[in-house]
């Protein structure tokens, strides 16, 4: 709560709080690791000064190392990475050098613990690609498009859901929308389009997705995606 205020987040460096905060990412207590990632993500969000401090302490390597941590920790690590890499090219280079794209790609795959990490990863990628000048080789090399198309192909609905199923269904809808947005942006940037199997699958899924989730993309985006899939 304290570091939601930009001045407080910027003062973490003056107060020499970054080293102890980063050390908590290695705590034996998973809950403390989760909270440490949460604080980091909040501190650097929309805060170039705090992003710079975190970068100087080589914090990205520590976050990348935690992408295979327990699921609740991993979810907050994804939040922290999204905040740190937003409009921060130097951080992206550090992320790439730490093998971040390869580890991030694993977060797209389904796991028994839930779908939050898939949703956060799709959100991360769509936000990342909103900047025209970012490096994209890591997304293509690690077959992110294939992962997002697989998510779209696994959409499920229950005819008469109970309360828990309704909550899960809403979460699934959000995941579907974010995965569709990320896939659309990848296709528009010609990323992963050498994977003809994924493109064919996406083309087959598109009419149903457009009918169920028309709000996912604006009309020009739908048209562009349809045209791209027809020509690729």
Helix and strand element order: HHHHHHHHHHHHHH
Which bin fits the share of residues in helices? 55-70%
> Would you tell me the overall average pLDDT?
91
Portion in beta strands: under 5%
Number of strands: 0
Outline type: elongated
* Contiguous uncertain segments of 5+ residues: none
The end-to-end span amounts to 48 Å
- Outline the biggest β-sheet: none
Number of H- or I-type helical stretches: 14
How would you characterize the overall build of this protein?
The protein is an all-alpha fold and 232 residues long. The protein has 14 helices and no strands. The longest helix has 26 residues, at 163-188. The radius of gyration is 19 Å and the shape is elongated.
Secondary structure: elements and pairs:
Elements: H1 6-10, H2 18-23, H3 30-44, H4 48-56, H5 59-65, H6 71-85, H7 89-97, H8 100-106, H9 116-129, H10 137-141, H11 144-153, H12 163-188, H13 196-212, H14 219-231
Short description:
The chain is 68% helix and 0% strand. It is mainly α.
């Amino acid at each position: 709560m304290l570091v939601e205020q930009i001045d407080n987040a910027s003062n973490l460096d003056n107060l020499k709080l970054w080293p102890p905060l980063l050390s908590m990412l290695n705590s034996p207590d998973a809950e403390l690791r989760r909270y440490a990632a949460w604080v980091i993500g909040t501190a650097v969000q929309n805060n170039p000064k705090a992003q710079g401090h975190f970068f100087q302490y080589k914090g990205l390597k520590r976050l990348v190392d935690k992408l295979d941590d327990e699921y609740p920790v991993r979810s907050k690590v994804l939040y922290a990475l999204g905040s740190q890499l937003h409009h921060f090219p130097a951080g992206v280079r550090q992320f790439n050098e730490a093998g971040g794209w390869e580890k991030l790609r694993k977060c797209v795959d389904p796991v028994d613990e839930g779908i939050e990490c898939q949703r956060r990863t799709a959100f991360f990628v769509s936000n990342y690609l909103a900047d025209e000048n970012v490096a994209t080789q890591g997304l293509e090399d690690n077959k992110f498009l294939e992962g997002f198309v697989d998510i779209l192909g696994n959409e499920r609905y229950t005819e008469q859901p109970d309360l828990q199923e309704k909550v899960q269904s809403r979460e699934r809808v959000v995941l579907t929308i974010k995965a569709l947005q990320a896939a659309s942006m990848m296709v528009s940037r010609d990323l992963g389009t050498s994977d003809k199997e994924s493109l064919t699958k996406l083309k087959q899924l598109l009419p149903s997705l457009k009918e169920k989730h028309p709000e996912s993309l604006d009309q020009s985006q739908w048209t562009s995606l349809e045209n791209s899939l027809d020509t690729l």
